[in-house]
Amino acid sequence: MNQLEIDALEILDRITDGFFSVDTNWNFTYINSEAARLLFRNREDLLGKNVWFEFPEAVNLPFYVQYHKAVREQVPVTFSSFFPPLNTWFDVRAYPSPNGLSVYFLDVTVEKKAASKKQQHYKSLFEQNPDAVFSFDLEGNYLSVNSAMERLLGYTEKEFLQLTYLPLVEEAELQRTRNHYEKAAKGYTQHYETKALHKDGRVVHVSVTNIPIIVDNEVVGVYGIAKDITDQKSTELQLIKSEKLSAVGQLSASIAHEIRNPLTALKGFIQIMRSSAPSKEIGYFEIMADEIARIEQITGELLMVAKPQVQQFHYENLTEIFQDVTTLLGSQALMNNVDIKVMSEDIPLVYCVAHQIKQVFINLIKNAIESMPTGGVIHVRLGSSHTGAVFIQVHDQGCGIPEGLLENIGIPFYTTKQKGTGLGMMTSFKIIESHTGTMEISSKEGEGTIVRISLPVHFVD
Ligand code: ADP
Ligand code: MG
Questions:
Q1: Distance CA 234, CA 367 (A)
Q2: For each of the chain's 461 residues, which pLDDT tens digit applies?
Q3: How far apart are CA 184 and CA 222, in angstroms?
Q4: Which CATH number is associated with domain 3-112?
Q5: Secondary structure tally for the chain: helices H, strands E
Q6: 341, 379 in Cβ contact below 8 A?
């Protein structure tokens, strides 16, 4: 060894990286002291020995593949690999030469563990998030979804990864949603509400945030965070409805009251005039009487809503109340070719105002009859639900209600009938609400409608 070579070796020994070299037969030709320390070996023991004999575990690890690649292709390689026998992560750079291979390596276990911890931190934010979190590429294909997202829309992660967001947005909302998405893909964070479609076909109202994923100053995709606001939406709607209800209630009370008295006078005089009218005019009087009856019906319904009556709550038998209703409406049903079939379980007495509940039943059965102009069957069920509440369900085979119009039912004066008042359902909602019960409508256009009322047995204030 000449002086130059000795100097060079001393330098190599002093560098802080581990360093060793092997010849073309993979035998160690040099090992610096850091390398010996990192590998927990004596350098005298290793010199002249074959790398793969001394470290057989490395054969199945990236070390083998990478070193061979460097030698075969005569290119430098860099890689990181875990080395299980020493429980250590190494960052490695290897440089080929005609005499063999020079390898520099560093112990990066601490950094790797910290990075992996950090990754786990971020992963928790994704995985454990109660909100649905997901990411897309720039075309809107799903790249990842968390489990909250699987629950929100009912698809599995695997199914999501085959999809874009487009088929999962309700059609009417699609263009708007797409605009927001495209803005996010251009780098602008978006907040908006839209309607998503659950796998089972249900519409889910969601509030969405779309955030651009920026890597090296370039947007490479879009993150999404979605919250289910379906309940919130329906409460909002209910609130709007009930505000309208009480405003209408106050107004109608005074109007209805004012109309009733003159109406009574008109009715009386028409009756008197009719008895002495020439026979060709009788028809006019009949029309007048009919129309007055209709005005009376409307004012009656209005007063029903508005009257601040002192209500008599008692424990009542709903089955009996319902029987009264079928008797009352029996002839109307018969005339319309409608059969009312009642299935009643043994149900407890319910704390309620009997004549109000009766009014609700009348409204429902009337609507059911009117929905079947060519006749049909109304199935009525009375029973107890598993929560202990009593339910009554009225199921008709009528025209049904188109989905988009369902939310109008119960809005004062909303009617689709030529002679309708649009007050029946509002009154019913209001009565059921005052009994702390619930009334739900489900309907399929052309197939029929189910109205289901649930009433607590005891009054809960
Ligand atoms: P009205 O019966 O005077 O129209 P309602 O408040 O009772 O007023 O009902 C409002 C609207 O709700 C009706 O016009 C109808 O469009 C719809 N509706 C209510 N019940 C039914 C039903 N069983 N089948 C189909 N549509 C119904
Ligand atoms: Mg009605």
A1: 24
A2: 677 777 777 777 777 889 999 999 999 999 999 999 999 999 899 999 999 999 999 999 999 999 999 999 999 999 999 999 999 999 999 999 888 999 999 999 999 888 888 888 888 888 899 999 999 999 999 999 999 999 999 999 999 999 999 999 999 999 999 999 999 999 999 999 999 999 998 999 999 999 999 999 999 999 999 999 988 887 777 777 666 666 766 677 677 778 887 888 888 888 888 888 888 888 888 888 888 888 887 787 777 665 555 568 899 999 999 998 998 888 889 999 999 999 999 999 999 988 889 989 999 999 999 999 999 999 999 999 888 899 999 999 999 999 989 989 988 889 999 888 888 998 899 889 889 999 999 999 999 999 999 999 886 55
A3: 7
A4: 3.30.450.20
A5: 14, 17
A6: yes
- Which fold would CATH assign to domain 314-455? Heat Shock Protein 90 (3.30.565)
Q: Say if residues 172 and 157 touch (Cβ distance below 8 Å).
A: no
3-112 matches 129-228 in fold: yes
Rg, C-alpha atoms of the chain: 40
Residue with tokens 């204030």: 461
CATH code for 129-228? 3.30.450.20
404: its two tokens: 């988009």
Query: Domain spanning 233-306: which CATH class is it, in words?
Result: mainly alpha
Domain ranges within the chain, ordered by starting residue: 3-112, 129-228, 233-306, 314-455
Which residues are near ligand 2, the ion (C-beta closer than 5 Å)?
A: 367, 424
Q: Which of 367, 441, 447 to mutate to test the pocket of ligand 1 (most atoms within 8 A of CB)?
A: 367
Cβ-count burial of 203 within 10 angstroms (0-12 exposed, 13-18 middle, 19+ buried)? middle
**Residues near ligand 1 (Cβ within 6 A):** 363, 367-368, 371, 396, 398-401, 409, 414-417, 420-426, 449
Question: 353 to each of 310, 331, 434, 455, how far by Cα in Å?
Answer: 10, 26, 10, 12
Using the structure block, give the residue that is written with the tokens 């100053």: 217
The pTM of this model reads: 0.48
Residue 416 CA to ligand 1 center (angstroms) comes to 7
Q: Which among 191, 186, 177 is positioned nearest to 213, based on CA atoms?
A: 186
